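RETRY 2/3 - previous attempt timed out on the joint model. Re-submitting the same 228-residue input unchanged.
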Amino acid sequence: MKLILFDIDGTLLDTSEVDGECYAAALEMELGLTLETGDWGEFTHVTDAGILDECFRRVRGRPPGPKEITTFIERFIDLLGRAHARDPDRFSEIPGAGDILRLLSRTSDCRVGLATGGWRASALFKLTRAGLPYRGLPLSTSNEGMSREAILSDCISKAGAKWPETGYSKIVSVGDGAWDVRTARVLGLGFVGVGDEATFEKLGVRHVVRDFRDPAAFFRLLDSASKA
Ligand SMILES: [Mg+2]
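RETRY 2/3 succeeded.
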């Protein structure tokens, strides 16, 4: 039995750009902070909670309080809603993603979890708008942890609690970011990259798909994916 953990933005959904824009706009409105680069990789924890924590410390010299986090998330969701109203096509799935989730749910030797660096509210907003069949799957988000390691570990625990009879011969993380590769290495998980082969080659990743339009090819990679 395999456990497959999917990242969301850039992996199942083609939402990295609109998500980043809305997050940056929320930072500007709530904290008055303009990020100099669009490079999220410069942050210690590339997660919604981790980036907000680091930005608060930069600007105010302290971490955000619970109410400030709630206010920020509300602002962020409001901006995502406006962006969706302007252009719903920016909330599309990566081609074939919905079909892959449906196929995996019918595959007897696989279980699926979703592990994202985004907050729960924004993850649900995007998954719903894109029409992905996510209901019933273990979902771990920035609400459960600030680091990707904590979020993926939480998802593995949730899968263990949901399917207690199941032991996993292999856990494979599927992601699009350099931080996803790093996290899989730290946790000793298999890894399949979604995106550009050359970019992943530089990170030492050989199991890569552009999208999910060829389910057989993706399933072969899940079988052969070794530890990242
Ligand atoms: Mg991603």
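The beta strands are 2-6, 110-115, 139-140, 170-175, 190-194, 208-209. Closing ticket.
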